[in-house]
Design goal:
The complex is a heterodimer of chains A (about 600) and B (about 400). Chain A has about 600 residues and is α+β, with helices and mostly antiparallel strands. Chain A is built from 14 helices and 33 strands. In chain A, the strands form seven sheets. An eight-stranded antiparallel beta sheet of chain A has the order 11-10-16-7-8-15-12-13. Chain A has a six-stranded mixed beta sheet with strand order 2-3-1-4-5-6, sandwiched between helices.
């Protein structure tokens, strides 16, 4: 066990985490140069493009240190967003150490601090790494000061590297071996293996990535997943190099993969513990939390013909994204689609982007919603995450909405703005603590629904990028929700209905009406666009009809041209959605359903 | 403001003639107007003489296919500027037509487009001698400033004089073309133009909203933002002003842009375009339509647009046809819809059913009710009990949009 080091790299976005990982992999000969591509751990195109890691990845690197011994370095990559904090936690839990990357010219930033606290929460040994020392703007002395002052770490423990040029990588590998502790665990004890990630392989099905805390694991042991209570027979265990390399067995302290004949990721819960069916452990690895969808939205294909394709795409996506849930949905305006549940807004974003890119689909997404608990007059309880199914208010006794505990890190100078943002978003019991000089943590209990819309963007903007944000679900609390409908010429556009707090109903309705009015072209009739709560109109916009729409001349040579134009126009109309005899172009739905606030100039 | 005034009401129409019309395109102009997208060219007199000879050749080549049709009862010299072709050349062309094509007796109604600067007592006498009954004058405006902006060579004074000369020459119909909707044009200015035209008492008026075509000088300027378009509401105001003012003055509209003192003066040639009466077009860019018969569907074809190519093909002894399309019942019905909605007679619903098998009202009942409520159309019975879908003034102003709103469910 002494020759094993399990570690992760944590960094503020853009501080060079992926490049650093690339360099470590190359130095350890984990990959042939000809197979090498940048951001090798980010396997999705989307990750490469956005420069973020969505899905964790793991690689085992053999390293012969200066002491002559060969070590097994397990680099456990972590996804970089709050939506996946659950996965981040599982990844961190699998490590004993973390490399905390700080950009040599940017210095310590908000996320660096948040990451440090997270790593400390899991008791990881942290080695600061100052990256990008090759940059002309690098200011190593200042960054070392910040590491001391803002992070409370020993700056002289830090390693200076340029991941881009490969400078300092050998020193870093030595630091991993000498400064990070080896794992502990009892190979003789009953098996306890933490499932910290799972991938889908089109040939082998589910590939489980595990960290063994106790015991050993080999084929053909029957293992049990302690939380989901399912049993499987292990077919193969091995090390996750850049390719999978089978080994006879995995032992306490090690990280590796398990194949157990599972056809998809369905039913697999990250954070679950594998144990031996014959000789189960007494307790699973602590910290398990079910990944529940908290954000819901309906996805429709732009062209109704694409419904079949969307169905297939979701089925495939589900194979390697167990946290995505969906069911059939239908809208009068947008046709058939799916009601989907997501872990958070980024998850939603990622699913949408993957459907659009990997499956070449054009989509319309309805306004994201949380799940409400409604108690009816007859004391029956219903759960509603789709405005379409919101009960008649007359039948509602009480409505409850989910609250989160938000933890916001911010430099002290933005404290007022952050407190104000929490207040605006109906935050209660907002408090703050001093973390270190000039650095604060604001804790607030917020309705999740208010965080769905641009909360993170607003936080970034009011703290000039320094604010970071994490949350956990708290409970359900009594709320005053109303269903806001959008009507076009008196007819409800079901896809645009949404549940909002009464206080925000009018501004939200107004914004929707304004955006629709901008995007629906003039037609032959006056078009009334209204926002309504039940029968009460709370917002209104009008689109005046065409007054002049006729060409001046129409003689011998003009007629064919005019007919063709007309045919083209009618073809275009087929692509529009009809509501109340009004043609609504797809762009109008897209524009209205964009997340709030990114525009309206 | 939406208006429900019905310009169509009370306007009489000449009975429809099913005899074909003949269109002759003369591409020459003394200057090229910055808004014009017709097939036009500037050239010297030898070229014009050669052009007339080529046109004579084309008449001979086109004629055989028109032997069995009814005799032509209209001949329309359009352009370009037909008045730029000397009367002798016009006579030559007409003589060839008379030789090769069947002409109605005693004579077809002949139309000639002319520029005011070409209108003299002598020219008028010559044209009258050729049998021209409608002289259509490209006045465009009586304002010198506007005329300069439009690149025209005449002044307002000269335009008025030309109209008076033409009227004195005894044509059955003298028509004035006006352009409105120029940048910054006010209702007052437009009304002044209309009043000036009316005071001259022509029998016919055409009022065209300035249209910016890509590829014209105005088109290029507009593309670079140097020619701001008149806002839609102002366009509508000027359009409705023309219709109201002229109807009150005694020149009711019979089409989007055309107004006549009496049904007799309506353009019986242009009406053939609007109701699918066959026509033969000769000269560069001219379009032709032949009716469907037992063996073939209706067909529209068009000549080479550029005069040089048109001449070249004729010189090689070929018909200068550039392209054609066959028109099935669906195409014809689409056209009948868009063309009918441009006229104050509206769409003859029964004829739509008998000619193209389309029952417009049953497929669009809700739409028609709605358009009626909005004051855009009315359904009216004529003296014989035939039903017409007639656009109101507001409807005429948005005729293109109306046509697009209808669903043509067609028999296969």
């Amino acid at each position: 066990m002494d020759h094993i080091r399990n570690f992760c790299i944590i960094a503020h976005i853009d501080h060079g985490k992926s490049t650093l990982a690339d360099r470590l992999i190359q130095r350890c000969g984990g990959v042939e140069d000809r197979d090498f591509r940048d951001q090798i751990l980010d396997s999705m195109d989307l990750e490469r493009e956005r420069g973020i890691t969505i899905k964790a990845n793991t690689v085992t690197l053999p390293y012969t240190a200066r002491d002559g011994k060969t070590y097994e370095l397990n680099l456990i990559d972590t996804p970089g967003h709050v939506d996946f904090s659950h996965e981040v936690r599982r990844s961190l839990m699998s490590c004993e150490g973390a490399l905390l990357v700080v950009d040599a010219s940017q210095g310590v930033e908000a996320q660096t601090v948040a990451n440090l606290y997270l790593a400390m929460e899991f008791g990881l040994t942290v080695v600061p790494v100052i990256n990008k020392i090759d940059l002309p703007s690098a200011d190593i002395d200042r960054v070392m000061e910040e590491i001391d002052r803002d992070l409370g770490l020993d700056p002289f423990e830090s390693v200076q590297v340029s991941a881009k040029l490969g400078t300092g990588i050998d020193d870093l590998l030595e630091a991993i071996v000498t400064k990070l502790p080896p794992p502990k665990g009892d190979p003789q004890a009953p098996l306890r293996a933490l499932l910290f990630d799972a991938q889908y392989d089109s040939y082998r099905g589910a590939v489980l990535l595990v960290r063994l805390f106790d015991g050993t694991l080999k084929a053909p042991t029957r293992v049990r997943l302690m939380h989901s209570d399912a049993e499987h027979k292990v077919e193969e265990v091995g090390n996750q190099r850049l390719k999978r390399v089978p080994v006879p067995q995995l032992s306490a302290g090690e990280v590796g993969y398990v194949l157990a004949g599972m056809k998809s990721l369905a039913g697999l819960a990250i954070g679950d513990t594998l144990t031996e069916a014959e000789r189960p452990a007494a307790e699973p690895v602590p910290g398990y939390r079910e990944a529940k969808p908290v954000v819901f939205s309906s996805i429709y294909p732009m062209a109704t013909d694409d419904y079949e394709d969307l169905t297939k795409a979701l089925e495939k996506l589900k194979l390697n994204d167990a946290s995505l849930i969906y069911e059939k949905d239908a809208s009068a305006a947008l046709g058939f689609g799916f009601r989907c549940g997501f872990l958070g807004l980024l998850h939603l974003d990622v699913v949408q982007a993957r459907l659009e890119r990997e499956y070449d689909l054009s989509l319309i997404l309805s306004a994201p919603s949380v799940r409400y608990r409604i108690v009816l007059n007859n004391d029956k309880e219903v759960w509603v995450d789709n405005p379409t199914f919101y009960p008649d208010p007359a039948n509602i006794k009480e409505a409850y909405e989910p609250y989160i505990k938000a933890s916001i890190m911010t430099p002290e100078r933005y404290l007022g703005a952050v407190m104000e943002l929490c207040r605006e978003r109906r935050g209660v019991e907002t408090t703050y603590n001093y973390l270190a000089a000039g650095r604060m943590e604001v804790v607030s209990q917020l309705p999740l629904a208010e965080v769905l819309f641009d909360f993170y963007d607003r936080l970034k903007s009011i703290t000039q990028g320094y604010g970071s944000f994490d949350y956990e679900l708290l409970d359900y609390r009594l709320g005053d929700m109303v269903k806001v409908d959008i009507l076009v010429n008196g007819e409800k556009v079901d896809a645009l209905s949404q549940l909002v707090h009464r206080e925000f109903a009018r501004p939200r309705a107004l914004r929707y009406c304004e955006r629709l009015a901008k995007k629906i072209p003039r037609q032959q009739f006056k078009i009334a666009i209204q926002g309504a709560i039940g029968g009460q109109i709370i917002a209104r916009e009008t689109i005046n009809p065409f007054r002049k729409d006729v060409t001046a001349k129409c003689y011998g040579g003009d007629i064919s041209r005019k007919r063709k134009l007309l045919e083209k126009q009618k073809e275009g109309k087929k692509k529009m959605k009809m509501v109340g005899a009004v043609e609504i172009p797809q762009e109008a739905f897209v524009a209205v359903l964009r997340t709030e606030d990114e525009d309206d100039e | 403001m939406r208006t429900t005034s019905r310009t169509g009401a009370g306007v009489m129409h000449e009975p429809r003639s099913s005899a074909p019309g003949l269109y002759l395109h003369v591409p020459f102009c003394s200057t090229i107007c910055p808004y014009c997208d017709f097939s036009v060219m500037r050239s010297a007199s030898p070229a014009r003489e050669r052009f007339a000879s080529r046109l004579v050749v084309e008449v001979g080549l086109a004629a055989p296919a028109w032997r069995d049709t009814r005799p032509f009862d209209t001949v329309y010299f359009g352009g370009g500027t037909p008045s730029q072709l000397p009367p002798e050349d016009l006579a030559r062309v007409l003589a060839a037509c008379r030789t090769h094509l069947a002409f109605a007796t005693p004579a077809p109604w002949i139309f000639l487009e002319a520029n005011p600067e070409d209108v003299t007592h002598e020219a008028c006498a010559a044209w009258r001698g050729l049998g021209v009954r409608t002289l259509s004058l490209g006045v465009q405006s009586f304002s010198d400033e506007t005329l300069r902006f439009l690149g025209r060579r005449h002044t307002g004074q000269e335009a008025s004089a030309a109209v008076e000369t033409a009227l004195a020459a005894g044509f059955d119909t003298v028509s004035i073309d006006l352009i409105f909707g120029l940048r910054g044009q006010t209702a007052e200015d437009w009304q002044l133009q209309l009043a000036t035209a009316v005071s001259l008492e022509p029998q016919h008026l055409s009022c065209y909203q300035l249209t910016i075509h890509a590829g014209t000088r105005f088109g290029v300027q507009a593309k670079h933002g140097q020619l701001p378009e008149l806002p839609e509401d102002d366009q509508a105001t000027l359009f409705e002003l023309a219709h109201r003012f002229l109807a009150d003055a005694g020149w009711p509209a019979y089409e989007v842009s055309n107004f006549a003192r009496a049904p007799l003066h309506q353009s019986r040639h242009n009406r053939k375009y609007w109701d699918h009466t066959p026509y033969l077009g000769l000269g560069p860019s001219a379009h032709s339509l032949s009716a469907a018969d037992a063996s073939s569907p209706a067909r529209r074809w068009w000549n080479e647009r550029g005069t040089p190519r048109w001449e070249k093909r004729l010189a090689a002894g070929e018909r200068p046809i550039e392209g054609q399309e066959l028109l099935g019942p669906k195409d014809l019905a689409e056209e009948a819809l868009l063309l009918g909605l441009r006229t104050t007679a509206g769409i003859d619903l029964d004829s739509l059913t008998t000619r193209y098998g389309v029952d417009l009202l049953s497929a669009n009942g809700a739409l028609v009710t709605r358009l009626t409520d909005e004051g855009l159309v009315v359904v009216r019975a004529d003296a014989e009990g035939g039903r017409h879908l007639v656009p109101t003034l507001s409807g005429l102003a948005v005729a293109d949009g109306l046509a697009a709103a209808f669903d043509l469910t067609l028999p296969n």
